[in-house]
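Materials and Methods. Structural model of 669_t:CDS:1. The 124-residue sequence of 669_t:CDS:1 from Racocetra fulgida was retrieved and submitted for structure prediction as follows.
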Amino acid sequence: MATGKGSGSKLNRLQFKQKLVTSSAKPITTQELLKRLKNLFGEISKTDQEEIETDSLKTVTRELIHNTLLSHKDKGVKAYVACCISDLLRLYAPDAPYTDKELRVTYAEATSSLRKKKTAFWLI
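The predicted structure was written out as tokens:
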């Protein structure tokens, strides 16, 4: 059954289908990862909570908290990941798609980047 916050009308599914995390044998270049994250952010930031089938968000919800993204060396990747997670929390509200531990780790990574004052949030 589709879940969402809508009032019975047909809910939209996430159109973004690209992988954000791959095996170490075939890694995604930083430039390609930034492109993918920008595309994902562009889609979910324009989506209203009442319009989305939250089941369609499950894959990106899990991938965004993968250690390779949260601890990525590129500041732009970290910035987009933080923005995407923020929008996912908005779309899922009031029910967070993450456990308390996952939220703590994600928040710690995001605030650590901000404290360094070199995070490129202005790129978005």
